[in-house]
Design goal:
With 94 residues, the chain is an alpha+beta fold. The chain contains two helices and six strands. It has one domain. Strands 5-4-3-2-1-6 form a six-stranded mixed β-sheet, covered by helices on one side. Helix 1 packs across helix 2.
Length: 94
């Protein structure tokens, strides 16, 4: 089982899967989300997806989907099915 931490900022959110692996998601022109794959908080790769790929209309709905259905959403973002034990959301007002 995996414990997931989500850091929510005004400009995006980071999904932390382990001390080494994380994903940072931001909005791009209210049409796409940019997904940065991070290793030790350094960007190693990035991709973009239109919100419709996730079945949502915008960035806020994508975050809500992550909260509601973390396993499904993580699989769509990462391509891996994680057996999630717990998800912790930390809000930052930066």
């Amino acid at each position: 089982m995996v414990d997931i931490i989500v850091e929510k900022y005004n400009y995006g959110f980071r999904i932390i899967l382990s001390e080494e692996e994380s994903y940072f998601i931001t909005d791009y022109e209210q049409k796409y989300c940019l997904i940065e794959t991070e290793i030790n908080r350094e960007v190693r790769d990035f991709s973009s997806s239109i919100y419709e790929d996730f079945g949502v209309k915008n960035f806020d709905e994508l975050f809500c989907l992550l909260v509601r259905e973390p396993r499904k959403t993580l699989e769509m973002i990462t391509g891996y099915d994680f057996p999630i034990d717990r998800i912790t959301i930390e809000y930052y007002e930066k």
